[in-house]
Amino acid sequence: MVKVHKVSGAAYDGNVYLVMDEHPILVDAGMMAEPTLKNIRKYIDPTKIEMIVLTHCHHDHSGAAPKLMEATGARLLLSAKETGCVGDDLTTVAYLFGASAPEFKVDGTLSEGMVLDLGEWKLEVLETPGHSAGCICLYERNEKVLFSGDTVFPDGNIGRTDMYGGDTKELINSIQRLTGLDVKTMYPGHMEITSNDVNRQIQMSLRFAKSVL
Ligand SMILES: [Zn+2]
User: Fold this and answer.
1) Is 145 exposed, middle or buried (0-12, 13-18, 19+ CB in 10 A)?
2) How many A from CA of 117 to the centre of ligand 1?
3) What is the C-alpha separation between 208 and 133, in angstroms, rounded?
4) What is the distance between the alpha carbons of residues 29 and 205, in angstroms, rounded to a whole number?
5) What pTM value is reported for the model?
6) 8 Å CB contact between 161 and 167
7) First-to-last CA distance in the chain?
8) Closest of 36, 104, 107, 17 to residue 66, by C-alpha
9) Is 53 helix (H, G, I), strand (E, B) or coil?
10) SS3 (DSSP) at 199
11) Residue range 165-206, pLDDT digits in tens
12) Phi/psi at 149 (nearest 5 deg)?
């Protein structure tokens, strides 16, 4: 059975998930490598991790990428629409964190319809722009698992659209699309993992987005 652990260690960091399938991966990198690595080591030798998949380029999801790539030797995948953001303080919003965006190598790009075959789980790449131009979600259809990045959060919350590349109309369309999925467990880019009537929570996000955006 595939296990998912939230391994980000710093309270204010973006969520980093370790997906323990035949081919172990990380979903997002966060910005604090050391506490994350410490948590990863509780479950697995970091060098066993094969891929780091970023939901989007923002610094709180990508800042630790170079250090985690070095510690794991994993390949890094990012949306084809955001490879140009790497190392750029504006588009990664590193400036909002008082940080400078690190350079790192992107080993492969993600686009709509791709499937990441981890062994038991097949993660479908859904392009869900709005919070940023190249935001993606990952969906496991059999287990009804959604890694929602910063597109939707629990309890009807939504990603900000007031940063570089944000687009309110696109965010509403992306959330609308997510309401068409059947989701049992959501692993969001911030806040807590939830399995509590997730479809309803995403419906609430859609209503909220439509009312405020
Ligand atoms: Zn973000």
Assistant:
1) buried
2) 25
3) 21
4) 25
5) 0.97
6) yes
7) 40
8) 104
9) strand
10) helix
11) 999 999 999 999 999 999 999 999 999 999 999 999 999 999
12) 55, -135
